[in-house]
Amino acid sequence: MRIGVISDPHGCLVGLRAALDWLKAEAVDLVACAGDVVNFGPQPNECVDLLVERNVASVQGNIDRDILLPPSRDETTNERTRQIIEIDNWCREHLTPASRQWLAELPLRLSPAPDVLVVHGGLHDAEEIVDVAAAPDLPSGVSVVVAGHLHRPFITTVQTGVWVNAGSAGRSCDGDPRAAVTVLERQAERWRASIHRVPFDLDTAVEAIRQAKMPHAERLIETQRKACWW
């Protein structure tokens, strides 16, 4: 059995499509998403629609959850925070009712195989930071956990199994703008995890940001090209 896992497309349709097309060519048995499907990219509804069309089950990321809240009226004097709030509110305004319902109904965890668990951040909190140096105890009966949230892919061995971060399919933050894709392959009663990078057309992604007239578009474009956070 082979399982593909992606995470954090963040409204970048061209990156998400490239990742899913790559997994289709690899003929994996199923694909799961570790959340944060929307926001920070120009095509949140299209990303939701593509996951539905490709029958990709997803967990709910912290952004998927928070974007359903009322618009923020935080009068912060911090410029960085103010810019992010404006981008959040742009996404809220553009989400369709169907996308909102889909995001609201996402589970917090998925089990694409009996001993595989997909979450967004940590085992109990979508915003938890589980980096490569962490050593979480896996739940009983689970040998592999795949998460997202950090936009930096890695594989690390923990006491009772393997923890994988799937990185981002749309807005990587590790200096490599390509989409990140995880493949789990069952071999002799154990899972082998591998991370792959899939190129996508950055110019098309950039043009979509401009065409959508997103707030702080040039900053979004800069971070997209440099594969860095805000």
Report on the structure:
A hairpin with a 2-residue loop joins strand 9 (179-187) and strand 10 (190-198). Strands 3-2-1-9-10 form a 5-stranded mixed β-sheet. It has a 5-stranded mixed β-sheet with strand order 4-5-6-8-7, with no helix packed on it. Helix content is 32%, strand content 22%. It has 7 helices and 10 strands. The mean pLDDT is 96. The longest helix has 16 residues, at 79-94. It is globular. It starts with a strand and ends with a helix. With 230 residues, it is an alpha/beta fold. It has one domain (2-226): Metallo-dependent phosphatases (Purple Acid Phosphatase, chain A, domain 2), CATH 3.60.21.
Structure described in brief:
The chain is an alpha/beta fold. The chain has helices spanning 13-25, 44-53, 62-66, 79-94, 97-104, 202-212, 217-226, and strands at 2-6, 30-33, 57-58, 110-113, 116-118, 144-147, 154-158, 161-165, 179-187, 190-198.
